[in-house]
Amino acid sequence: MKYCNNKASDNSEYCNRLRFRIASALLIQFDDSDQEKGLQIIQQLAESGYPDAIVYYGMVLNEGRAGRDPDSVEAVKWFKLCADRYQHPQAQYELGVAYYTGEGVEEDEAEAVRLFELASGKSAFVLFLSLHI
Fold first, then answer.
1. CA 116, CA 58: separation in Å to the nearest integer?
2. Is the alpha carbon torsion for 76, 78, 84, 86 positive or negative?
3. Are 23 and 53 contacting, i.e. CB atoms less than 8 angstroms apart?
4. What is residue 32's predicted lDDT score, i.e. its pLDDT?
5. Whole-angstrom distance, CA of residue 107 vs CA of residue 44
6. CA 83 to CA 16: how far, in whole Å?
7. pLDDT, tens digit, for every residue of 5-48?
8. Phi and psi for 119 in degrees, rounded to 5?
9. Among 15, 60, 64, 90, which residue carries the largest CB count within 10 Å?
10. CA distances from 110 to 81, 83, 116 (A)
11. pTM of the entire structure?
12. How many C-beta atoms lie closer than 10 Å to residue 56's C-beta?
């Protein structure tokens, strides 16, 4: 991390991946203060436009980690941002789940299927068949 704390390498892909891994590890700890540290790192990465962090930040908001109440409406905003800007498969999937369940957004099964198809790169019918063969 010493290398990543200087201005020259601050936003390098390597440093962002390293920060993401550290934050992810902190967010699964039982201690609220560790989770809070992880949340701060993920939020900073998300706000700087790191796609994996944007999705994960939405997931953390949706689940209500680090002593916070779940906020599915705010989570959907982050999923939409990442799905629209980066066509990120995990963001498309998470947004699809939100549309399917109606958490944070009005329920819309057709939109959920469209997003699941985008996330998988396949049609929902092909996915259905592959699960039942």
1. 17
2. negative
3. yes
4. 87
5. 30
6. 19
7. 665 556 688 899 999 999 999 999 998 899 999 999 999 999 99
8. -65, -35
9. 60
10. 20, 17, 10
11. 0.85
12. 26
Phi-psi region of 65 (alpha: psi -120 to 50; beta: other; left: phi over 0): beta
Alpha helices in 28-88 (DSSP H): 32-47, 51-63, 72-86
CB of 115 closer than 8 Å to CB of 96? yes
Query: 8: which 2 tokens?
Result: 């020259």
d(C-alpha 32, C-alpha 114), whole Å: 37
Tokens of residue 109, six digits: 């099964």
Q: What is the pLDDT at residue 11?
A: 67
Q: What is the DSSP letter of 49?
A: T
* pLDDT at residue 6 in the model: 60
Q: Of 8-22, 42-56, 84-98, where does mean pLDDT reach its minimum?
A: 8-22
Q: What's the number of CA atoms in the CB half-sphere (13 Å) around residue 111?
A: 15
